[in-house]
Design a protein that fits this description.
The structure is a single chain. This protein is an all-alpha fold and about 250 residues long. The chain has a domain of about 30 residues. It contains eleven helices and no strands. The chain starts with a helix and ends with a helix.
Amino acid sequence: MDIATLLGVMAGLSLMVVSIYMGGGASGFLDVPSIFITVGGCFCATLVHFPLGEVMGIISVVKRTLSVNIPAAENVIRDMTQYARTARKDGVLALEDAARRVDDDFLAKGLQLLIDGTEADQIREIMFIELGSMQRRHKRGSSILTFMGESAPAFGMIGTLIGLVQMLRQLDDPSKIGAGMATAILTTFYGALLANLFFIPLAGKLRRRSSEETTIREMMIEGLSAIQTAVNPGVLEERLRSYVRPKQRQSSTE
């Protein structure tokens, strides 16, 4: 679980709530028509822009930004080096037990290709196709969240226009001006809040997650092809360390 994402969202909402209560209470910030315009309009526009299946998968996309299932770089370096030693000593078939114990589907597939005797070039080709598929899924999820982050403020402005029209049509009845003004102001507030605290940050987090996972997968591909070509385990370890930021390399060796 990514604590930073949850902490940021909860802290942001808490600051909003506290500020609202300090300013006189939350009753004036709840307006159902404004919610319908902003949230409903944003969701409907997303349905128009993207296929239904992709939109329905938005929950899994958000879940992806909250969960951290990417193997740590130091663990990948350690495991791939150990696989190289095992294959060098006992042969590639000795990796069957390791393949059964691996929790990561990507790595398990690569190890199975090794065990099946697939050539190193073919392993790289197959695994990079798999990596490209993963990147496209992440890009689609990020694009959905980015679009929602752009459309939420737009529908906030649409709600503002609706509220202003309602208010201007009822200037002869001062008692009804407040409702129109509330819709006008709150839709903008809701749109800005959704975009800047949820959709845009989550899209950025997903892009970062995708970049991190891409690096890890590239390390695995490098390790698998090196094992198949019988690269020295020590040389392989140094190769894999080159993927890690210099400040992290020391901790990877400990």
